[in-house]
Amino acid sequence: MPKGQINTYACPSGHVMVTIDLDEGVTPFMKRCETCAQMAQSGFYRVDQRLTPTHEWYKPAHPERYQQMGLRQHCKAGGLVLREIGQPDETEAMPEPIPKIRHELKCLPEFFQDLKAGHKCFEVRRNDRNFQAGEELYLREWSPEGGYTEDTLLLDITYVLPGGQNGIDPEYCVMSLAWSMDMDFSDFLEEGPEHEDGFPITTFCG
């Protein structure tokens, strides 16, 4: 929505929060009521624009500093964050994230596409780099016939099962993977049908 728009969030108990969009971006359809903790529903901006807001939706300056993966993902997709009017940007006081070790590797198309679609969430690799949980894999789609494509994936290593056990070759390891929130998700988003109020519904697609 354009910045400056007034909206409300109302819970079943009748508590209403009035908000304003300080920046352009995406706001949630539902949020938890700060008074009773029930789920409050958006008014879809079909409210009196003369209402006085108590909270504002804004773009944090450093969304990469959030520890919650879901919040980083929300901001990466253009989402706004809520604060009480007059409060500072909470990310300004947060520490800088520690840079991750990133491993650039080629990946065959059949495995790459399964990773991209979310069907595959692991990699079996020769452990010649001493892979560790908390590091990243930067995978580039590659085939012996065509070489590199322009398709890439950035994945977090969440767990490493070393070789030499469970039938795994001692020189290899099995890595559990998750999509990195530092990845550009624009290629994974598509505009779906509009809500009955005229707002487009954005969804992830594989």
Which structural traits does this protein have?
single chain, 206 residues, mainly beta, Archaeosine Trna-guanine Transglycosylase, Chain: A, domain 4, 2 domains, 6-stranded mixed β-sheet, 5-stranded mixed β-sheet, 13 strands, elongated
Describe the structure.
Residues 189-206 have low confidence and may be disordered. A hairpin with a 5-residue loop joins strand 1 and strand 2 (16-21). The chain has a six-stranded mixed β-sheet, with no helix packed on it. It has a five-stranded mixed β-sheet with strand order 7-9-10-11-8. Strands 12-13 form a two-stranded antiparallel ribbon. It contains two helices and 13 strands, in the order βββββαββαββββββ. The protein is elongated and about 65 Å long. Helices cover 8% and strands 39% of the residues. The protein folds into two domains: 6-93, no CATH class; 102-186, Hypothetical protein (Archaeosine Trna-guanine Transglycosylase, Chain: A, domain 4).
Helicity level: under 10%
Distance between the first and last residues' Cα: 26 Å
The overall average pLDDT, rounded, is 88
Whole-number count of domains: 2
Q: Which class best fits the helix and strand makeup?
A: mainly beta
Beta-strand share of residues: 35-45%
Number of helices: 2
Q: Profile the largest sheet.
A: 6 strands, mixed
Strand order of the largest sheet: 3-4-1-2-5-6
If you compute it from the alpha carbons, what radius of gyration comes out, rounded to the nearest whole angstrom? 22 Å
Low-pLDDT runs: 189-206
Order of H and E elements: EEEEEHEEHEEEEEE
* Global morphology: elongated
Number of strands: 13
